[in-house]
Amino acid sequence: MPTLASHRKSRTRTGVRANTPAVGFTTAALASVTLLSTQSATAAPSEPNPSVEEVQKKVDDLYRQAGTATQQYNKAKEATDTQRKSVDRVLDDVAKSADKVNEARRALGTYAAAQYRAGAVGPTAALMFADSPESYFEQTQLMDRLTDRQQGAVEDFQKEQRSAAKKRATATKSLETLTESQTSLKAGKQKVQDKLAAARSLLSELTAEEKARLAALELKKEQEARRKAEAKAEEEAAERKRQEEARQKEQPPATGGGTGTGTGTGTGSGATDGTYAAKAEKVLAFARAQIGKPYVWGATGPSSYDCSGLTAAAWKAAGVQLPRTTWDQVKVGKRVATADLLPGDLVFFYDDISHVGIYKGDGKMIHAPKPGANVREESIYYMPIYGSVRPA
After folding, report:
1. Options 64, 77, 167, 355, the catalytic residue
2. Of the residues 59, 90, 271, 307, which is catalytic?
3. Is 254 a catalytic site residue?
4. pLDDT tens per residue, range 103-137
5. Could you confirm whether 7 is annotated as catalytic?
6. Against a cut of 0.70, is the pTM above it?
7. What tens digit of pLDDT does each residue of 239-261 get?
8. Catalytic residue chosen out of the listed positions 232, 367, 370, 390
């Protein structure tokens, strides 16, 4: 076939030759279209958009994970702050030790200068120039004492040097540990921010209609939690009434002083303890005053709080110092059943104990919910309950 092609006349009209750029581009374009068509035919179908219910579940889970990461951050920050104070103390010791070394060095210099001046004159010359033999021997004894003191100064200097070296080594190790903790703290902070950013991204992709549906789902969830709280309040009121009637039957009317119904909702012993009730009232008064302030992870007030920051600040107002994290707060005081909750008790949520609120009675609590929300009053049944404690 190539031989036949060599006898063909070349075209002189305005046609485009096969090796021109235009034809090359067209060929490439056709090849691309063919390739894309082939890829389109074999490519896996794209993932369907998640439903509003799936988005809600994912967002709730991300917020819960952020809550857990926040507690990890709080614990790491608390440890880092403690380490920083320890490092500051060690550095102070190093500075003091350096001062002692310098002082010992100055003492050595004084003795060395005195020895040099004495050594400049030999014993024979010293005896010849002395006012009397007695003064020579007195000077010799003085130099012997100076030598003894110099030896002591050398030993002191060496001791201070060893102490300073040991403290410098301790300071170096402490600084390394602090640096590692700060790196871990930074990573924990980034972890929280990543979870929150992922949640915001999911919400931002929703259409207006989907956002409305999501709001409706949240409202339904809140209404269900409210119904549970109302049922709990009715149950508690009925139990208090039953207990009051039982006490009235057991006690003769002539005994005088009222028995009272207490401010609590629980049925356990000590439910009307006046000391605890007084502290709880201070706790709740503080918590109510924070309603409307924003949740900010890692915050302890006074303008914003995370969940455990609010509970710690509220109980501090009642004179009780609580640990920083939910994981440590749950270990304080004594555990109480949900049925025995009193105002002021702390209610913890989720299996990982990543959230906490302050019980106020009637199945409700005051808490700092999550990023984007403010401190508010809400049903304790809005989230799965892990357990509760009475801090004091």
Report:
1. 355
2. 307
3. no
4. 766 766 665 666 555 554 455 555 444 555 556 55
5. no
6. no
7. 878 888 888 887 765 544 443 33
8. 367
